[in-house]
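Dear support,

I submitted the protein below through the web form. The confirmation email said the job was done, but the results page showed an empty box. After a refresh the structure appeared. I'm attaching both so you can tell me whether what I see now is the final result or a partial one.
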Amino acid sequence: MSSFKHLSVNQLVQMTEAKSVQIVDIRDGNSFNNGHIDGAFNLNNENLAHFIGQADMDRPLVVVCYHGISSQNAAQYLCEQGFDDVYSLDGGFSAWHEANA
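What the results page shows now:
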């Protein structure tokens, strides 16, 4: 079984420029609606099964939370569901927002 990898904001920028990544944001809906990384999908318990059924398991998947803590557990869970290339964004949305403000 594979495990997730850590990803810096700079690495995420490079991946998104290459358009080779799926991004899931596990923050609450209000936080997501107030700001999120372009192209991110707001993943929650209600849409998790649908997402897993529709997602490309072979494409890199980046999990984003508030500060990079909760995303680690979610990233490991997604690895266990069959995703091959999963990352947790270090510093979470806060770090991404600071770097892109």
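Response: this is the final, complete result; the empty box was a page-load delay. The mean pLDDT is 95.
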